[in-house]
Amino acid sequence: MDTHENGAFAQPGFDVVGQDLSDRHALRRVAGLSTELEDVTEVEYRQVRLERVVLAGVWTSGTVRDADRSLAELALLAETAGSLVLDGVIQRRDTPDPATYLGSGKAKELRDIVAATGADTVICDGELTPGQLRQLEEILKVKVVDRTWLILDIFAQHARSREGKAQVSLAQMQYLLPRLRGWGESLSRQAGGRAGGQTGGVGTRGPGETKIETDRRRIRTQMSKLRKELKEMEKSRTTQRAARHRAGIPAVAIAGYTNAGKSSLLNRLTGAGVLVENSLFATLDPTVRKTRTPNGREYTLADTVGFVRHLPHQLVEAFRSTLEEVKDADLIVHVVDGSDDAPEEQMAAVRIVLNDIGAGSVPELSVINKADIADPDRIATLLRREPHAVVVSATTGEGIEALLLAIEADLPHLMQEVDILIPYSRGDLISRAHSQGDVLELDHVENGTRLKARVPEALAGELLQAGAADAG
Ligand SMILES: Nc1nc2c(ncn2[C@@H]2O[C@H](COP(=O)(O)OP(=O)(O)OP(=O)(O)O)[C@@H](O)[C@H]2O)c(=O)[nH]1
Ligand SMILES: [Mg+2]
């Protein structure tokens, strides 16, 4: 479903409402953000959860282009969730307003835009506090959601497996818990019969428990149930991974920004046939495939969920078990969309998440994908920053052979234990066992040296051959 290939972001640029660009406090309208529906079927598809939205961002640092890109990405996310984007505005501020996210004056301007466009929802480009959400809603008179909720919503729509659904539910509940409405309202209603009680002290507990407290308790119970279920589901995967590890099969994980072409690459490398879609967060469930290097060495290749700037921490936590596939890998193949406007930024965002999940020290091989449509100059620039990189196109197959060789070269040289009789004529092998591995036992017997050692796979092969030659 090419829901966002409508060229809505082809012409980035700000319309300035009111004053000139240098005015730090102007509310800037981002041009060309509105969704252009291509045909009727698309309208019908979106009808399921059609929301007419206006986007709002606070631009705190970086260049105009950065701010522009951030809102354009928010628009992509909104469209992926099935919304119709009507307009987008950005306010330049040092920090978001603690009460209303946008300054209250600008919030009122936004209210007029919302009214004029007939929007029913405003999506803010950040994670808002419960108070900000509520107060902004009071001014705007329409539903306000933030970037975090939007991403959670996309994940909820795309979750297919039982595990994926449970992970998303957990993340959503964690987000909702502090944001349940009516807190103040219920409390004051309850405190009505009592003296004071504004802050809901000891006296507000017990049989007169508020609705909100009941809701919270129910959510907490639900969350711990989900956590338990997830632990169970995680077990079989952990067991499989441990078995592969014991068998000395190295694990390679494909990671990268959402829509970079990770699944396409897995398909190209292994014929896995996993879902490829021009949509954000198409893949939520990890797929692991066994495959071989050109010289025949077996390894596993895992495709997993894509990352994005400011990936909600609730999701990172809920998807922890899925992301372990990446953390425990021997090698991360970091795929980046070479045709993107700012591939360096995408890589930086991915590395932040990798560090977050404890995968920061796993060796990384960069793969610059979509070479067939990327600007060669941009690729050259990227290559200067990422010297350990391969340029490929998952679509045309260009560069795939080089990638396979690069993976082969980067696989860890696993140690293998040997217990073998080496003829005296091959003293060279014994000294290599000393220098490259751990010699556990050495015994000079009648027809050679009995060697028990842990050595790199390649050397193990040579030792076995020499031993076999002797035996035969
Ligand atoms: N032109 C071109 N398009 C590509 C290439 N690789 C992938 N694509 C397209 O990019 C889009 C995303 O591809 P996926 O493989 O689903 O990307 P992904 O990284 O798995 O995305 P998520 O799972 O959503 O995070 C699809 O429309 C692909 O057809 C490529 O080398 N060239
Ligand atoms: Mg994918």
From TrEMBL:
Its main location: cytoplasm. It is found in: Cytoplasm. Residues 188-212 are annotated as: Disordered. Residues 250-415 form the Hflx-type G domain. Residues 216-243 form a coiled coil. GO terms for molecular function: GTP binding; metal ion binding; ribosome binding. Keywords: Coiled coil, Cytoplasm, GTP-binding, Magnesium, Metal-binding, Nucleotide-binding. One of its GO terms (cellular component) is cytoplasm. Residues 193-206 have a biased composition (Gly residues). NCBIfam families: GTP_HflX (TIGR03156). HAMAP family: GTPase_HflX (MF_00900). This is Unannotated protein. It comes from freshwater metagenome.
